[in-house]
């Protein structure tokens, strides 16, 4: 892993939003932790070529990217799908920053590095980009699907590079039918923490939980591209985001005093992701939760702890939240980028102790929204239409109350909304498969608190 000078590391800030007041006997403390990174290279949707660079030409943190393209037989149905995949990968290659190391992997029931080949990475410049696009033109569809083998090859390629940022982009159009779920899980466990990966499903013949599971395990994004003609735009945007990352392997470190229990740690914006089970112990009182790579961006985390009971007037530090950058050599002291404090104060003021912090209330609702969408769609698939109606009605109610307009629009393609405020809905008799899969894939996307 490459090292950074102090000037290269983006500046991180931590803000804690909570109601620290507890009634007598109260134990549960909730806080929303907003982490903001500035000074990185993401451009907020501005094409990288038009943005003021964080570095001089050809500079920036070392990065390596592997593009994994599904070349299974189903990519030929319709034939335009394979062509769109080739064009999208070419567009992503055009977006690579000069000097970035990269490779292209063709994925079937086996994985083959089709450019540059022989287990190597190419260095992006005009010549290698042209060669890679020429190699793409030779890709054809045929064979099965074993995504774990694609990921393992990407891991070997990426970890041959001494770079700060390692990233994968994976495209599939089908189910992972040529290896067992256990094989894919083992591959994900092996790759977790070694590189991040964005995953995309094209068309409607793939399994949502497989694609979202890959992205969740490898701290990337997941989405559906129902119409293959939209792949090039999506791949370009993904690569722009990857090229904007400035620092990798940032951990959210949670220190708690003796007697404090951790209930959960979740990312809640820009999407819900439960990090609780991904803790690694840092020392006797602290543990680290992975957050992946950062550019110019802001994310929110929900921390919930149980503190020991205490009397009126007492107060304590319930937790300390820090952003940690490990020493690249693994030998030195990790760098603390920023930190914030979570407090607990016991009071007999009922108004103070019963009020819910607006950020905590909002993200508790957003997490429930993601959960009830999944439950509602699962119930619908299993034929439990009453259960599906109840869950998706609650989802409509939560999305409306929180101003999550994107999710509201997706829900309206699955249910007829009678009254959004009360969550009164009717299931649509016919739902396009792409609409249902889009809702499921994007169910974890959240909106931030309205100011």
Brief account:
The chain has eleven helices and 20 strands. With 451 residues, it is of the alpha+beta class.
Query: Care to count the β-strands?
Result: 20
Q: How many distinct helices?
A: 11
Uncertain runs: 1-7, 41-59
Q: What structural class results from the helix and strand content?
A: alpha+beta
State the separation between the terminal residues, measured CA to CA.
39 Å
Into which percentage range does the β-strand content fall? 25-35%
Mean pLDDT: 92
Rg, rounded, reads: 23 Å
Major beta-sheet overview: 7 strands, mixed
Instruction: Give the CA-based shape.
Output: globular
Helix content: 25-40%
List the main descriptive attributes of the protein structure presented here.
alpha+beta, six-stranded mixed beta sheet, single chain, disordered N terminus, 451 residues, globular
């Amino acid at each position: 892993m490459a090292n950074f000078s102090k000037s290269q590391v983006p500046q991180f800030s931590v803000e804690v939003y909570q109601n620290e007041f507890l009634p007598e006997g109260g134990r549960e403390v909730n806080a929303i932790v907003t982490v903001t990174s500035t000074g990185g290279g993401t451009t907020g949707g501005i094409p990288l070529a038009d943005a003021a660079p964080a570095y001089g030409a050809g500079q920036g943190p070392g990065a390596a990217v592997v593009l994994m393209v599904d070349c299974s037989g189903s990519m030929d149905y319709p034939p335009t799908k394979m062509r769109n995949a080739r064009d999208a990968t070419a567009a992503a290659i055009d977006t690579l920053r000069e000097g970035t190391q990269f490779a292209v992997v063709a994925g079937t029931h086996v994985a083959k590095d089709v450019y540059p080949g022989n287990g190597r990475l190419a260095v992006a410049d005009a010549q290698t980009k042209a060669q890679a696009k020429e190699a793409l033109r030779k890709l054809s569809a045929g064979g099965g699907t074993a995504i774990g083998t694609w990921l393992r090859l990407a891991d070997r390629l990426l970890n041959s590079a001494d770079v700060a940022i390692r990233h994968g982009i994976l495209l599939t159009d089908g189910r992972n039918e040529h290896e067992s779920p256990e094989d894919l899980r083992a591959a994900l466990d092996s790759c977790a923490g070694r590189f991040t990966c964005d995953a995309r499903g094209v068309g409607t013949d793939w399994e949502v939980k497989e694609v979202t599971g890959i992205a969740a395990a490898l701290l990337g994004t997941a989405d559906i591209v129902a119409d293959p003609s939209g792949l090039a735009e999506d791949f370009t945007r993904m690569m722009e985001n990857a090229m904007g990352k400035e620092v990798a392997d940032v951990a959210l470190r949670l220190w708690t005093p003796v007697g404090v229990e951790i209930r959960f740690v979740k990312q809640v914006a820009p999407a819900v992701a439960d990090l609780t089970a991904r803790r690694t112990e840092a020392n006797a009182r602290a543990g680290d939760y992975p957050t992946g790579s950062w550019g110019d961006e802001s994310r929110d985390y929900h921390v919930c702890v149980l503190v020991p009971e205490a009397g009126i007037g007492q107060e304590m530090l319930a937790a300390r939240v820090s952003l940690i950058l490990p020493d690249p050599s693994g030998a030195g002291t990790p760098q603390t980028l920023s930190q914030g404090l979570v407090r607990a104060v016991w009071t007999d003021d009922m108004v103070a102790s019963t009020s819910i912090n607006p950020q905590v209330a909002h993200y508790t609702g957003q997490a429930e929204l993601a959960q009830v969408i999944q439950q509602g769609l699962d119930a619908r698939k299993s034929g439990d239409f009453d259960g599906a109606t109840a869950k998706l009605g609650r989802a409509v109610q939560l999305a409306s109350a929180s101003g999550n307009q994107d999710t509201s629009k997706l829900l309206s393609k699955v249910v007829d909304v009678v009254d959004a405020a009360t969550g009164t809905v009717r299931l649509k008799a016919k739902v396009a498969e792409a609409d249902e899969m889009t809702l499921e894939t994007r169910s974890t996307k959240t909106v931030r608190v309205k100011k």
